[in-house]
Each structure stands twice: as C-alpha cells, then as structure tokens.
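Lecture 7 notes: from sequence to structure.

We start with a single chain of 149 residues. Read the sequence below before looking at the structure.
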Amino acid sequence: MDMVEHEDILSDAEREALAVVTAPPAPAQQVLVVDDNALSREALCLYLKSKGIECVDAEGVAAALRQLKRNPRIGLVITDLRMAPTDGLELIRRIRESERAALSIIVVSGDTDVKEAVDVMHLGVVDFLLKPVDLGRVLELVRKELGIE
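Now the structure, written as tokens:
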C-alpha cells in the first residue's frame, strides 16, 4: 500500500484545527484590580505580578469601564465594593449589562452586610472575600479563572 501524501489525508477543517493548535499562544490574560484605595490596589497588583500574572488597575468605576472597553485581554476583575463616588456593586451591574457580561469577577470588601453580599452573589461573582484578603486564596481563584496551572 502506497503512503498517501500527508496533505491529502487531512480535510480543510482538520488543517484549520491543526493551525489553531500550532498557532502561537494568545497573549496572557490580565487581571483588572479596581479599588479607590491606591495602596490596596497597588499592593494586590504587585503581588499578582510577583506570581507571573499580568495586572492592570483602575481607581474607580468609570476608569474600570474604560479599561474594559479598550482592553480585550482583561479576563478577570477583582473589585472593592466600598468606593466613591460609585460603588463596586454598580460596577458589577454595569459589566453584566455590557458586551463583557460573562467576565469573571471577584469581590473584595472591608465590611459588608448580608443583603449586600446576597446582591453581589446574585450578580454571578466568582467569590466574595473579606479584607484583609488571604492572598493565597486570591491567587488560587485568579489561576483557576484564567486557566493557569
């Protein structure tokens, strides 16, 4: 039996599938950290960067929404709830109503009440962490959500 040319064996669909498999990896996804407290924001970003995770930050809801519109590489948002003038709950609602509605969101809050926690969970967040946050837990969640082993 003659060996058929390799190209003849593959259908166009299979060739395309192979091209995807052998394509260079997509640029790493980034985490957007939203907190009106610069120190909290920078500390979390520095920590994530030290673990090899790309991070961008925003000081509030308006800046976060601008980043999300401009930057398709953002794959996860970590947001504080207590922010002025607009709180984190409003940010989550706005994301859920946008073209980035499926985005993974982790909420971090210094203090909260039960109703607020329930509202947040109804908006489909990945997790709700109280400050001071357990950085190991944050890292675990980030890696899981971004599909990093």
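Helices lie at 6-9, 12-22, 38-50, 61-70, 88-96, 114-122, 135-146. Keep this in mind for problem set 3.
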